[in-house]
Specification:
heterotrimer; A alpha/beta; B mainly alpha; C mainly alpha; A: alpha/beta; Rossmann fold; 2 domains; 4-stranded antiparallel beta sheet; 10 strands; about 40% helix; C: mainly alpha; ABC transporter involved in vitamin B12 uptake, BtuC; about 70% helix; globular; disordered C terminus; binds adenosine-5'-diphosphate; binds magnesium ion
């Protein structure tokens, strides 16, 4: 059974069809790549999946639940975590708090319990902190845990976004151009990290990326978007040799 | 009675429309509620008053003079209070800064001119004539005519001139306009200048019409004009005109048929209803946030 | 409490005591607006509306129905909170700027309402409200409010509120129900505004709609902005400065609003995060004493 299934998903912005009848199945525990030229609709696809937009047409099924009309936080709570192409951190919260905020939603303690500092609440907070600390340690950010997110370097900010996305225990992780702005050694580390996340946490990963070397290396399945349409799908070998992909996308790069 | 109220409403409404245009143009380009705009209108009324009483000029000259002074003032306010904040800070900071500029200007005027209401001298024969059952004063005719002319002029400028086209480009996408080589700072200055000039014209005419000018006249008028801009659809120039006229008529009708003591609450009641039922206003387009 | 009251009225000049009590009331009100605007980032320019609802509710309950004082305080705060909920609801749909206008409109409507409200004495206002608000009461309530504010802001709910201010879309993507918390921030802000208004009414003997006009809203906003949006010490400092300063500037009272206006612009340009920025009470009370312990990695 696929983790995520899209059927005929379209998204219009006042006449512009940013997504046009996308069908897609993402199987459990795969690393699924989405590539395509700028403006192809990759980010829009992520926004539709995470409930920022309600698609104009089509249905999205996430682990048996239709999610097309759900609001963003509900989708997140069902188990979809994401990062953003243009980094969106909580700049004036500490690194640790950035992650804790996301680890926190499913706690039961309410306003009164927090105000009065009830034991259950305190216990929960401990668990949250432990979890958040584990994640930022994994991302190599432990030493910076007390600093404001805005003071981190670009690469660190990208890693913090991943830590935050993982904090709510997602089973599907969406990464929007995670390697953008990284140098080649950082990219290698990122690749290891993505593998590690997938294997350790048994996650499914959906990845938008422009770096072909990275995509071809770590993705098991790749879909190619162009002008909002899916023009090809297959494993890296199939994509590399697909004439339409070469013409509209890969060809441009060479 | 009804027709009389309608005429009075349209007169009031066209002054709201003149002020609302400034809000809507600025908002269309920099997404800022220029809280100081009501104060520009107030300053316009005062400049007109000074010109008329001290230099003894006629209404037309007073209006042109007030428009010129307020253009400069509008540009100055943008330079000092908004430009340093542009693009670098949260959305909250420019809004608070605008509020500060507004309070500063009205208090400054109160210190200079005193808080008492001042009156325009009888500069012209404010006669009125009957037209059927309706009493029409010559000032009403002037307000309606001048407002219509200014708005037609504005439409022409926005549609046909270079700077007008640049403004429209900037209101579509400021960054893209900058990339295309448009001098964004200049366009923004022009926008503030034009909006301020319209407000000043409104200020002078309202000052003469109601025969009352005071330092805090801009606060309420500004808020109501902003309500009018939102009502019509913020960012839309025809929307501001329509919103201004609608609000003016509704307010006068409310006063006439409901109660005069709730006058100021009417505009805000309408505004809140509109924002909840149709946030994009009458003529505004539905916007989807870009992520 | 009685003893404290006697002792304090014995040693402090009534004029200064008055300023201190008003300062305490302002701190309570500013801490309320700090939750709405400072922490959650929802610009409210009509806080005086909540204050006047609290003030009138409690005063009328005291004067007309003879309720006990503490109960009228709670009732004033609760009714204000209810209106906070009603005004918070448009926040579900509206972006920052529109919300600001709605809050101004709300406060104006409230003011016009009380101008025409028979049991509230219309434009004349209500007088003869017994002076029940004492130094020790204000002190105790202020301490409680600071304490619970601090608890809230360091709790998961407070952190989520900061997250909304910092980036609403990302907050949603983290599973935070932003609409829910935005409304909550209005309710809490309004509650404290109403509480402050009720205390104010029972201190001043007399209230009228002019006490809660647009300028009053701006004054409270100024306290929060001056001290630092989102910071508890900031709101306290801002409220203290803006209570004392007007007293010192009394000779030049006309310049007060001029100064406020200029202050807002200058602060936004040079210190948009206020005097104390985001400094938390926690940072002041517990200076960094933690040793960096590196976790062992496998
Ligand atoms: N909120 C929006 N409103 C209008 N157009 C949008 C919006 N979001 C995206 N678009 C348009 O949709 C197209 C696809 O954009 P996007 O998904 O960001 O592309 P990609 O991520 O593949 O580079 C672009 O033409 C973009 O301008
Ligand atoms: Mg993209």
């Amino acid at each position: 059974m696929p983790v995520l299934e899209l059927q005929g998903v379209s998204q219009e912005f006042g006449g512009l069809r940013a997504l046009d009848g996308i069908d897609m199945k993402v199987e459990h525990n795969t690393i699924f790549g989405i590539i395509g030229p700028n403006g192809a609709g990759k980010t829009t696809l992520f926004n539709v999946i995470t409930g920022i937009y309600t698609p104009t047409e089509g249905s999205l099924i996430f682990r048996d639940t239709p999610i097309a009309s759900l609001s963003s936080h509900k989708v997140a709570r069902l188990g979809i975590g994401r990062t953003f192409q243009n980094i969106r951190l909580f700049n004036r919260l500490s690194v640790l708090d950035n992650v804790k905020v996301a680890a926190n939603w499913n706690r039961s303690a309410g306003l009164l319990a927090s105000l009065l500092g009830m034991p259950a609440y305190v216990r929960e907070q401990k668990q949250c902190s432990t979890k958040a600390e584990e994640l930022i340690t994994m991302m190599g950010l432990y030493e910076k845990r007390r600093e404001y997110a805005q003071s981190l370097s670009y690469g660190e900010q990208r890693r913090l976004e991943i830590a935050r996305a993982l904090a709510s225990n997602p089973c599907l992780l969406l990464l929007d151009e995670p390697a953008a702005g990284m140098n080649s050694s950082e990219k290698l580390e990122l690749m290891d990290l993505i593998w590690k996340i997938r294997d350790d946490m048994q996650l499914t990963i959906l990845l938008v990326e422009h770096d072909m070397h990275l995509v071809m290396n770590i993705c098991e399945q790749i879909a190619v978007l162009d002008y909002g349409r899916k023009i090809a799908e297959g494993d890296p070998e199939q994509i590399k040799s697909d004439p339409r992909v070469i013409q509209s996308y890969l060809g441009v790069e060479q | 009675m009804l027709w009389q109220q309608l005429l009075n409403g349209l007169t009031l409404g066209s002054t709201y429309a003149l002020i609302a245009l400034g809000y809507t143009m600025v908002y269309g380009i920099v997404q800022l509620i220029n809280f100081a705009h009501g104060e520009i209108y107030m300053v316009g009324a005062f400049v007109g008053l000074v010109l008329v009483t001290v230099w003894d000029v006629n209404l037309g000259v007073a209006m042109v003079g007030a428009m010129a002074v307020c253009m400069l003032l509008g540009v100055l306010v943008e330079r000092i209070a908004y430009r340093p904040l542009r693009g670098k800070s949260s959305r909250l900071s420019p809004l608070i800064s605008a509020l500060g500029a507004s309070i500063f200007l009205s208090t400054l005027m109160a210190l200079i001119a005193g808080v008492n209401t001042r009156r325009y001298p009888a500069i012209m024969d404010l006669s009125s004539f009957s037209w059927g059952p309706v009493q029409v004063s010559s000032m009403q005719v002037i307000i309606l005519l001048v407002s219509a002319l200014l708005m037609i002029g504005l439409q022409f400028m926005v549609r046909k001139t270079r700077i007008g086209k640049a403004m429209r480009a900037c209101s579509q996408d400021l960054d893209a306009a900058a990339l295309m080589g448009i001098n964004v700072n200049r366009v923004i200055s022009y926008t503030f200048a034009i909006g301020s000039a319209l407000a000043a014209a409104g200020g002078v005419m309202v000052g003469v019409y109601y025969n009352a000018v005071w330092p805090y006249m801009g606060t309420m008028a500004g808020l109501k004009a902003f309500a009018a801009a939102v009502l019509g659809g913020i960012g839309s120039i025809p929307g501001a005109m329509l919103g201004g006229l609608t609000l003016g008529v509704l307010e006068i009708m409310g006063v006439a048929y409901i109660s005069s003591s709730f006058k100021d609450a009417i505009a805000f009641g309408i505004l809140i209803l509109v924002l909840i039922l149709r946030p994009q206003g009458i003529l505004g387009e539905k916007i989807s946030k870009k992520v | 409490m009685k003893l404290l009251e006697q002792w304090i009225t014995g040693i402090i000049d009534p004029y200064y005591l008055r300023i201190i009590i008003l300062m305490g009331i302002n701190i309570i009100i500013a801490l309320g607006l700090n939750i709405t605007t400072g922490v959650t980032g929802q610009l409210s320019m009509g806080h005086a509306g909540f204050m006047s609802i609290g003030a009138y509710t409690s005063a009328i309950l005291t004067l007309k129905l003879g309720w006990p004082f503490w109960l009228t305080l709670l009732a004033g705060a609760a009714v204000a909170a209810l209106f906070g909920f009603v005004i918070g609801l448009p926040a579900l749909r509206l972006e920052g700027d529109y919300l600001a206008i709605v809050t101004i409109g709300f406060a104006e409507i409230v003011r016009v309402f009380f101008l025409n409200f028979e049991p509230g004495g219309k434009a004349v206002g209500l007088s003869g409200i017994p002076q029940e608000t004492s130094f020790s009461l204000v002190l105790i309530i202020t301490i409680l409010v600071v304490f619970f504010s601090q608890r809230l802001l360091s709790s998961r709910i407070g952190k989520a509120m900061y997250a909304i201010r910092e980036n609403e879309i990302a907050a949603e993507a983290c599973g935070i129900n932003t609409t829910h918390l935005k409304v909550l921030s209005f309710v809490l802000g309004a509650f404290l505004g109403g509480l402050g208004g009720a205390l104010y009414a029972h201190y001043m003997y007399y209230i009228s709609p002019q006490d809660f006009d647009f300028m009053r809203s701006i004054e409270v906003l100024n306290m929060v902005v001056l001290g630092g949006l989102g910071s508890i010490p900031g709101a306290i400092l801002g409220a203290a400065i803006l209570t004392i300063l007007p007293e010192m500037l009394r000779v030049v009272a006309e310049y007060r609003m001029l100064f406020y206006g200029a202050l807002l612009v200058i602060l936004m340009i040079f210190r948009p995060n206020g005097l104390l920025g985001d400094i938390r009470l926690y940072d002041l009370v517990k200076p960094k004493r933690e040793k960096e312990v590196k976790p062992c990695r496998s």
